[in-house]
User: Which sequence fits this backbone?
């Protein structure tokens, strides 16, 4: 542990990052899918001389600009800024390993920003073919950046041969790169189609409305069919232990996967019963409901991915609390507090309660809050110090997918003491952080 | 200042420290220019609108709208260029930057909200406005006729637009203040190293004399860069035949450039003398690159740029003056960035040598990197070339 820890009350660092990731993921999906939809429809409108569609696309490009630049760029910034605060060990490792891909992603974002501005501001001012080419430049750079981000995300789950070779190529093209790329592409297609459906439901022009609903069906149906299929392909590419965890252990990850699958089916059925069957009269309420369900399907699938990665932030390389798995043995022998740079107490002898509190802050707060999300008080409610000590001793063997406790027996007992104070009632609590 | 025990070689570096230093310098120059425009344009928008309103000068109000419409672009490119600059800094000196970030964690996260408010309101102003773009008849009308048309149509910012521009100016200034604070904080390890109390996320080094001075220095620099771009626009319009609007824009830009640069004559030394004595001594000549000669060339070129821009409104063809002053200013800014980086490097060297070994750079990675750079430059160049053909029609819209 070389960095200090900032307490994020109630939300916890993990939930803060998850919220930021979700906003960024949706905007990235929309950038990729929306860009593709935009250029395909513009080409069709120019070919058919469809003025109503071109007018719709001008409005769409304005919405697109706002979504991709304001929401996308700021959530990208927010994601990194949040990671730097709540998970600095992971941020530093990922930045060092993927420095050049991150530079490439940044360069692609510069191109996307320029293309989005120019595409929006040059309707009717440049030759249509050139305008379309600007749209394609945006779309291609959005696809490439999504693939690059996919390389980083999948590395965290399945670093594969990188653990042995340390080569960037092995890190980037890891075992789940391809299935995850399909998952992201199908998610992008589905979410964009649903946003297009919501937009088309409010159109006054019946011909335009029908055309837009049909176009959205082309994105929604394959998207939500391929999403679960690529999800299962993704699971098949996982190491045996992870695959078992998600398919057979029946925990939260399994439930989330089932929910995601169910939501995909509901989106498809709702679409087939409602707007796609009667494209002339799509209901905005149904479209909005489908969008919400679609977002639920994508986010639960992503959530289950996050859970099966636990207790690692990079599987086999770094635990969620920033501890190197190879170093756990040393810490259990030599002591954690002594080696943790930002520990305010270095030995358990003088202040057991304080040491326990410090150990919780440095080893557990990456995932747990005191009273909010993933509350430690709720988790240990009613447990005695001895029970807690036994639990801590075999922490990595418990069903909760937690890292092993990295510290000496005395440190473990100190943590158990502080946790037992948490297990008492609020009024009796001692030594809150 | 206390020493900090630094970890060595936790993770390998992606390239040599020298290569990363060059990447960081290039990115910082680009990011600084974008950030300067993001901060200065809303302030100049408000000034131009108020001056235009008070003096019934439509050209200034037209300029106000133009600047307001361009501000979102500056903000987005600040983000797009700032992130890789910060990536590079964090990769090079994570052991310093990450603890500092965590100690000012809530303010650091407030930066995201300020960006959202600033960018959101600037986009609102930019995309909501309907008019003020030059008349479509402009190519066929002399300036006097266009001025007459403009005088009878409200061309400035609407009242909500004015308030939102003020809001975005405040948000961008707040964001830049946080970044300047962060820059000062990383150089104060005794505030966030392992001897400091546990972080509460609200640490801003208000008592550090460098904070205010660096903020003022940044603000003056930002206004000067904003002024220079406006002078460019004015000179460009004069060359395109829009003499009245071009002249008043050029004068406005020249004023915004020359005054901050003149103030910098006092503000820059004031900022440098706040550095710790050891650093100042080494800047004064011990180290060749950051030595006084290098610093003086930067300061001198900025002054030359100020003189040239001040003269330009009096010239019949002002564009060459503005062009040369832009080159001078670019050089001056680059010098400042390199010196700043060098000073920070010296400061970190005092803390200990934390640069771990670099990963050898594989030739294949070089080819991929070169291909990406070529593709990005080609895409940007082509798009700009295509759209600049129609810039006469689309400028201001």
Assistant:
């Amino acid at each position: 542990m070389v960095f200090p820890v900032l307490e994020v009350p109630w939300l916890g660092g993990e939930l803060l990052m998850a919220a930021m990731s979700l906003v960024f993921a949706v905007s990235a999906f929309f950038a990729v899918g929306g860009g593709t939809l935009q250029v395909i429809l513009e080409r069709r409108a120019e070919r058919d001389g469809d003025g109503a569609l071109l007018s719709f696309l001008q409005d769409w490009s304005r919405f697109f600009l706002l979504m991709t630049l304001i929401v996308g760029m700021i959530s990208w910034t927010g994601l990194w800024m949040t990671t730097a605060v709540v998970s600095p060990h992971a941020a530093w490792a990922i930045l060092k390993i993927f420095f050049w891909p991150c530079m490439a992603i940044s360069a692609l974002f510069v191109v996307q920003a320029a293309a989005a501005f120019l595409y929006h501001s040059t309707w009717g001012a440049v030759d249509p073919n050139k305008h379309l080419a600007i749209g394609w430049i945006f779309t291609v750079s959005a696809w490439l950046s999504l693939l690059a981000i996919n390389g980083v995300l999948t590395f965290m789950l399945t670093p594969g041969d990188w653990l042995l070779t340390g080569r960037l190529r092995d890190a980037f093209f890891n075992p789940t790169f391809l299935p995850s790329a399909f998952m992201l592409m199908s998610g992008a297609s589905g979410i964009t189609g649903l946003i297009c459906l919501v937009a088309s439901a409010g159109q006054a022009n019946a011909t335009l409305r029908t055309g837009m609903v049909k176009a959205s069906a082309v994105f929604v149906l394959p998207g939500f069919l391929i999403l679960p299929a690529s999800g299962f392909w993704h699971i098949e590419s996982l190491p045996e232990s992870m695959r078992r965890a998600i398919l057979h252990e029946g925990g939260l990850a399994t439930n989330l996967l089932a929910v995601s699958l169910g939501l995909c089916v509901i989106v498809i059925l709702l679409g087939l019963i409602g707007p796609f069957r009667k494209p002339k009269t799509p209901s905005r309420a149904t479209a909005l409901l489908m969008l919400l369900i679609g977002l639920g399907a994508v986010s639960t699938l992503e959530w289950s991915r996050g859970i099966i990665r636990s207790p690692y932030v990079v599987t086999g390389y770094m635990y969620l609390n920033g501890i190197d798995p190879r170093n756990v043995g040393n810490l259990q022998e030599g002591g954690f507090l002594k080696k943790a740079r930002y520990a305010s107490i270095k030995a358990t002898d003088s202040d057991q309660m304080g040491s326990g509190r410090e150990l919780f802050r440095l080893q557990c707060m990456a995932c747990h809050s005191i009273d909010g999300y993933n509350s430690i008080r709720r988790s240990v409610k009613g447990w005695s110090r001895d029970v807690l000590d036994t639990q801590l001793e075999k922490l990595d063997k418990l069903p909760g997918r937690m890292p092993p406790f990295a510290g000496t027996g005395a440190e473990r007992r100190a943590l158990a003491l502080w946790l037992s104070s948490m297990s008492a009632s609020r009024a009796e609590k001692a030594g809150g952080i | 200042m206390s020493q900090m025990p630094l970890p060595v070689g936790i993770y390998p570096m992606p390239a040599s420290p020298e290569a990363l230093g060059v990447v960081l310098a290039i990115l910082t120059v680009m990011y600084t220019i974008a950030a300067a425009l993001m901060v200065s344009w809303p302030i100049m928008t408000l000034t131009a609108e108020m001056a235009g309103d008070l003096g019934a000068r439509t050209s200034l109000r037209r300029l106000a709208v133009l600047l307001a419409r361009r501000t979102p672009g500056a903000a987005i490119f600040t983000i797009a260029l700032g992130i890789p600059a910060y990536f590079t800094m964090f990769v090079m000196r994570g052991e310093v930057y990450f603890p500092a970030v965590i100690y000012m964690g809530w303010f650091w996260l407030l930066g995201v909200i300020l960006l959202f408010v600033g960018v959101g309101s600037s986009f609102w102003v930019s995309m909501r406005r309907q008019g003020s773009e030059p008349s479509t008849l402009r190519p066929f009308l002399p300036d006097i006729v266009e001025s007459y048309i403009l005088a009878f149509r409200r061309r400035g910012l609407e009242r909500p637009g004015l308030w939102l521009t003020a809001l975005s100016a405040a948000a961008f200034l707040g964001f830049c203040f946080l970044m300047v604070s962060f820059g000062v904080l990383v150089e104060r390890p005794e505030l966030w190293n392992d001897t400091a109390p546990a972080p509460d996320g609200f640490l801003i080094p208000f008592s550090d004399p460098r904070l205010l001075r660096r903020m003022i220095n940044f603000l003056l620099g930002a206004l000067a860069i904003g002024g220079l771009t406006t002078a460019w626009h004015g000179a460009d319009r004069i060359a395109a035949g829009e003499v009245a609007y071009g002249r008043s824009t050029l004068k406005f830009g020249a004023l915004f450039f020359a005054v901050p640069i003149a103030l910098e004559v006092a503000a820059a030394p004031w900022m440098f003398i706040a550095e710790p004595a050891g650093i100042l001594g080494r800047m004064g000549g011990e180290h060749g690159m950051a030595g006084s000669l290098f610093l003086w060339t930067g300061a001198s070129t900025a002054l030359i740029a100020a003189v040239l821009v001040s003269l330009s409104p009096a010239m019949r063809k002002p564009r060459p003056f503005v062009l040369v002053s832009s080159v001078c200013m670019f050089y001056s800014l680059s010098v400042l960035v390199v010196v700043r980086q060098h000073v920070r490097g010296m400061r970190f060297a005092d803390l200990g040598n934390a640069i771990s070994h670099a990963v050898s750079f594989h030739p294949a990675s070089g080819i991929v990197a070169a291909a990406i750079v070529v593709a990005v430059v080609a895409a940007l160049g082509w798009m700009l070339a295509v759209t600049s053909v129609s810039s006469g029609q689309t400028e201001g819209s």
Chain B touches chain A through 70 residues (CB under 8 Å).
